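hey can u check if this looks right to u? its 358 residues, i copy pasted from the old doc so theres a chance i mangled smth
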Amino acid sequence: MIGLDLARHRLHNQHLIEPALHKPSDVVAWLGAVQAQDYTAAKWAVAQRTFGLTDAAIEQAFTDGAILRTHLLRPTWHFVTPDDIRWMLALTAPRVNAANAYQYRSLALGDAIFKRSHAALAQALQAGQELTRAQLGVVLQRAGIALDNLRLTHLMMRAELDGVICSGTRQGKQFTYALLDERVPPTKVVERAEALLELTRRYFSSRGPATVQDFVWWSGLTTADANAGLDMVKPQLTNEVVDGQTYWLSTTSRYTKDHSPTAYLLPNYDEYIVGYTDRSAVFDTSHTHKLDARGSVLAQHTIVIDGRVAGTWKRTLKKKAVIIELSPFTSLTKAETRAIASAAQRYGAFLDLPVTLA
């Protein structure tokens, strides 16, 4: 590869350009996991990598358990497939628990409390029961476990990380929890080395070109584990050095020059942004002051033109329309404006609503 175009390669490998995936579970499996603490945004992130799936179609996949939502990789929610949830938890949950260790200690949450909590949750959810967080909080209090909001948060997260519970179907807009062993059919045991190889392969195939440091951030693994995974998967990868950094991607990655401009309205925490610790290939930090008060490009809905973050956007849902307010960093050309309008229409089709651009 000569003149490696990081942004364009990533657009292709994440299936934003020329989507070739049909089902929500195809997207989640290809990416390995999709950050999903903002559930509505995560559904749009999945839809953009398919042949025009709607919000309703992805909601149905979640209801059916074809995609699940749980804590893994890092201390936040992710979409993951039933086939992957157990081996991915076994590989990454110890690191999340290590990151949470200080909070566990400060909240007086130790092994004995977790054991009691897991048992109470399992009893309440047996035989296909699906309960909300608030309902399970009552269950834990009845079991003699003292709660405040932060304590309940970590008890529920620990039960997810230990493979006791996972997402159930939604009750209206309320999320529920179900027993993992009842929600997901048994899967074969994956040895740790095989799991490490598979997670590494998924990452560099779907997000390459990327560095080892990018993989460490995304996976939550140690640098030693990331390097070990890279060593195992190197025969399937190629690399190039750009500005002193070594970038890895799959040898089967195919990239062709696309007509410019291409535009996307990406949601907050989209894997195109959050999948890397070094975002300089897609975001110019001189624009940081144009973000909202949080000052983080991760937390923004971003306008992406030709692979670069070119502004932010907000949506307002009305009964019969969705209003999209654009905040570009610089003046847009007529071609860029048309490309963004096309991206906005795709979002409207996703919601099955007409779009008004502001």
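The first helix runs from residue 6 to 13.
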